[in-house]
Amino acid sequence: MVPWVLARDANLIRWGLTTQEAREQLVDWPRHAYIYLAMIRFAMAERPDEPGLSALLREVLQDPTCRRLWEERTCIVGNRDGHRFRLSLPHVSPGTVDVVTQVLLPAGHPGLRFVVLGSAPSSPADD
After folding, report:
1. How confident is residue 126, by pLDDT bands cut at 50, 70 and 90?
2. Fewer CB near the last or first residue (10 Å), C or N of the chain?
């Protein structure tokens, strides 16, 4: 579903904020961008001396839209566990795909996150 994860330095937040592909596949991209930026803030608060985070933020803020979104809101988000959203994946489905995230935090590797996308169960509110 998401071939970019095969890249050597694959990073969900980098992909979500810096690629045109993400802007096309994440339905309501600005909402996702706000959350990803809030997750960068959280990570930087947890690990202020992590050079990779500073480099990621510099890279993301080179994009004028991301810079504007960063300056508009200052919220902090730890993770997107249980978040429901829609993807536009024409190579998988002609319509949008409803998914839910499950975030796994490996105890032996603090700072790493393993994100699983699963089919979002339908509920009466979705009808």
Report:
1. very low
2. C
What would the pLDDT profile of 78-119 be if each residue is shown by its tens digit? Answer: 888 888 888 898 887 888 889 898 999 899 987 788 888 888
Burial, 63: exposed, middle or buried (Cβ in 10 Å; 0-12, 13-18, 19+)? middle
What are the angstrom distances between the C-alpha of 90 and each of 14, 25, 30, 60, 74?
Answer: 22, 9, 20, 26, 34
21 closest CA partner among 1, 46, 39, 41: 1
Give the list of residues 6+ apart from residue 112 with CB closer than 8 angstroms, or none: 105, 106
Inter-CA distances, 30 with 9, 26, 52, 93, 94, Å: 24, 9, 24, 22, 22
- Rounded CA-CA distance 56/40 in Å is 9
How far apart are alpha carbons 93 and 87 in whole angstroms? 10
Q: What are phi and psi of 114, to 5 degrees?
A: -115, 115
Collapsing DSSP to helix, strand or coil, 77 comes out as: coil
d(CA 2, CA 6): 9
